[in-house]
Amino acid sequence: MTATNLFPTGEVDSATAEQVRPFRVYTQRDLDRITAVRHLPAEQRFAMKVVSTALPFRVNDYVIERLIDWSRVPDDPIFQLTFPQAEMLSPAHYAEIARLLRREADKAEIDAAVARIRHELNPHPAGQRELNIPRLPNGDLVTGIQHKYRETVLFFPSQGQTCHAYCSFCFRWAQFIGDKELRMATNEAQGLHAYLRQQRCVTDLLVTGGDPMVMRTRHMEAYLEPLLHRDFDHVQTIRIGTKALTFWPYRFVSDADSDALLSLLERLVAAGKHVAVMAHFNHWRELDTEVCERAVERIRATGAQIRTQGPLLAHINDEPDDWARMWRTQVRLGIVPYYMFVERDTGAHHYFKVPLVRAWEIYREAAQQVSGLARTARGPSMSAGPGKVEITGVADVAGETVFALRFLQARNPDWANRPFFAKFDPQATWLDELKPAFGEQEFFFEEEYRERWTGLLH
Ligand SMILES: *Cc1c(COP(=O)(O)O)cnc(C)c1O
Predict the structure, then answer these.
(1) With contact defined as beta carbons under 8 Å apart, do 188 and 145 qualify?
(2) Residue of the nearest CA to atom 12 in ligand 1?
(3) In-domain check, residue 8
(4) 166-170, 184-188, 319-323, range with the lowest pLDDT
């Protein structure tokens, strides 16, 4: 085995043999070393190699052994969520890389083709890099921070810019391909703290990545513990975005610093902060292991809340019953469903995309099956340049079929929660494909968005 053991694990008294597990990770180079993969047809293995040459791939033993049902491959949702599939690249891109690999082209030639292909896959959707990076009063850019919505600052700690495994649909995939320039991260807690100190209307800090839960607890402490000073009383909520409950629940159970992590959460809660673990889930199967349930229990025992979000994806979770079952399971475990997203227009979008009308139907049919406590997930929501746009529904109004829409979050807070309408389009999969209804020239926010923000795009 050459798989690297990046995160050595320790033992805690309560851990059972199942709960203590070395973290063994596999990337593209190790595909042939995964026993279950070796049993797949040669053609499928080659396709995986081709796709993972262009798109990031990383998986670990827990995902392979506990989450994927190999008897249902390739349709298994967790297999689709983590392993590359031929159709994730366009036929032209696929053919180009396949040709290079078949004739064993040299590395420089492959790298050049891959760089061009990645560039064509819209690596930075919604102007993420250009539009949201704030400045200090002296004009310095605060790297590693995005501040798009008034109340909430996003922080990308440099130690948290990878994940325990990668999602095949990840909208932040460009961060994982090793191009340092593309990474949104900072080494410095100072910039974060200086910025938060002066931004008095910020109530929420959202630590994100990658996955901040890949960080050692002592790094997390360095970022978060200072927020207990009264200079940061206005920051009442600390959210931590993570997929560790899916990809590595041992992070909260039996890693060497699991107990230290939970004790940090406990201290933040005791000091009066609202701590929310923003867990990324796509399918109820991710919650269906003993160690995941144990991790949920341990997090909740600290007084932290767990809220969940995730995109709706063809091949993975485009069935209302799967969403209903996932939300019900979450509520039973004491978790609050929070957002259902529409998959963004980046990377393998063409493979995962679901028409907006279908997304709304799935949301509605799922919500109709569950009690009110499981209907707290809002959506389906598009995180677009101007804001988070919810597809409220399809309706016939004054003889026209329209989408009713609203901003759940907006660059200008005043845009939020105003209904607006787009012409019905059964094929549309993203906001930029929608046209205003009722003969309007543009949507109510477009002129202001253009004038105040898109001038900054380059
Ligand atoms: C979703 C999001 C937030 C958080 O919005 P809430 O509605 O408060 O959950 C903050 N910043 C960005 C850039 C986001 O996309």
Answers:
(1) no
(2) 148
(3) no
(4) 184-188
Tokens of 413: 């807070």
Average pLDDT score, the chain = 91
CA of 208 to the centre of ligand 1 (A): 11
Residue 157 lies in a domain: no
Residue nearest to atom 10 of ligand 1 (CA): 152
Q: Which domain holds residue 42?
A: 25-119
The band of 13, judged by pLDDT with boundaries at 50, 70 and 90, is very low
pTM: 0.92
> Could you tell me where the DSSP H helices lie in 75-229?
77-82, 91-102, 107-119, 128-131, 189-198, 217-224
**Distance from Cα 264 to the centre of ligand 1, integer Å:** 24
Is the CB of 184 within 6 Å of ligand 1?
no
- Nearest protein Cα to ligand 1, atom 15: 383
* CA 422 – CA 378 distance, rounded (Å): 19
CA angle 296, 297, 298 (to 5 degrees): 95
- When pLDDT is averaged across residues 123-142 and rounded to a whole number, the result is 74
Q: Indicate whether residue 148 lines ligand 1 (CB < 6 A).
A: yes
Q: What number is the average pLDDT over the span 287-295? A: 98
Q: Does the pLDDT value for residue 203 go beyond 50? A: yes
Instruction: Choose the weakest-confidence range: 65-74, 165-174, 398-407.
Output: 165-174
| Total number of domains in the chain | 1
Q: Is residue 344 part of a domain?
A: no
Residue 51: C-alpha distances to residues 56, 72, 178, 347 (Å):
9, 21, 16, 11
Ligand 1 center–CA 215 separation, angstroms: 22
Contact 409 CB / ligand 1 (< 6 Å): yes
Q: What is the pLDDT of residue 19?
A: 53
With a 6 A CB cut-off, is 407 part of the ligand 1 pocket? no
- The residue whose C-alpha atom lies closest to atom 13 belonging to ligand 1 is 148
- Is residue 86 situated within a structural domain? yes
DSSP-derived pairing of the beta strands 336-342 and 378-383? parallel
